Amino acid sequence: MKKVFLDTNILVDLIADRKPFSKFAIEIFQSSESNKIQLFTSSHSIATTYYLLKKFVDDKSLRSTLLGLFEYLTVVPVNTDILTKGLRSKQKDFENAVQIFCATSIEKMDCIVTRNIKDFKGSEIPVLAPDEFCAKIF
Q1: 3-state DSSP assignment of residue 79
Q2: For the chain, what percent of residues have pLDDT higher than 70?
Q3: Contact residues for 68 (Cβ-Cβ < 8 A; gap 6+)
Q4: What does CATH list as the number for 2-137?
Q5: What is the pTM of this model?
């Protein structure tokens, strides 16, 4: 089974139903539901998704939705080792460095899916846009 790390923007697209991007986020989660892929994200992504959407989605619903995602997602904790690697990396954006090092902490991670591909330059794990990823799995 392919292991796929999701960046924060994929979670936000899904929950906020940001069209046209949500179409691909839904397809990705449906693939997980049918056991075609195994999804991962960082604890940072969960917190950031909550922070970004709390102004637009009522608190109780948002918390319930995020809890529901845990049925499909394995959450990779952001720890001191990952933060240290991120701070020492050559990545311009610290937040994306954290995402990359969370993904690399999982053995045999197949790819990172994000809409910000240019921000993940230099990742040792292949980085795909959601539409590109969906075209490959279907």
Answers
A1: coil
A2: 99
A3: none
A4: 3.40.50.1010
A5: 0.95
